[in-house]
Known about the structure:
The chain is α/β, with parallel strands linked by helices. Helices cover 40% and strands 21% of the residues.
Amino acid sequence: MPDSPLKGVTLRGLEVFEALARSGSVAIASDQLGMSAPAVSQQMKNLDVALGVELMDHSRRPMTLTPAGRLFLSRAEMALSALRMGHRDLTTLDLSDLSSLALGVIDDFENEVTPLLATRLADTMTACAFRLQTGASHTLHAQIARRELDIAICAAAEAQPPATRAYPLLEDPYILAVPHGIDVSGGLEALASLTFLRRDPDQVMGQQIERYLTRHRLSLPQRFEMDSNQSISALVAGGTGWTITTPLSLLRAGRFASGIDAHPLPGEAMARQIMLYATSDWTGDIPAQIANLVRELSERHFVSQGAQRMPWLGDTFRVLH
Length: 321
């Protein structure tokens, strides 16, 4: 019987390749996977031999994907995602005993994760009154503080909502978004001819961005202020202005994405954290199981896509465990 074309391809090898593709660093991948650096390098070498091609360009630092690696990465991620989902299905979330659940989810999740999350939760509910709403993080913060929600998935503000338990989900770093082709080698000063597009100051993102500008002593004209991510994306793509955003928000740009270039944020790194907050009267492991489901969906639909579009992010855009 002829050898299988996948002989020598192991689950651990695929996990190592996935981690290296995102981080470009053996040290980071070994830390993420709980392996030694030599073991990571050996797993990658074994996978290259098994496939008969080199997937990573080891001559560059950080390492980058070869053309074959870019082609294989999406397939490897799909295979790993299917295996992880299959494992989760063996220990599926059971909400059959719940009588009600009010869930709020940040609007950044609306196109990808929220529909899948709602479907998975609904599949396990047999007699549960389920209420789902999406919105801005500051709105969800206020609602769970007033006990209008049982669980809220949103960006962390300076203060945690009172009487809640927090489950970290995603680290979402701030980045620079400019019209396609604009040279930013001169830093923010090079953008003086463009309008800065501000976010609504009530939003968590808006507040964090304003603090960044204050620390850097940047006083920018107050011309555009919006709470619509898509409107900001449209104006950046159209050449009207530039903004500070995050990979998660930029991945929602849709048809405007081709007109936007993303770059690292000048100065010190800054990030927002997406959290799951559950009211303190919840007992059992249901919030933790929902958090794990959201992490898995975020890894598949956000982090992997962000790594492909913005490989310079490394592991700064990552799921938090």
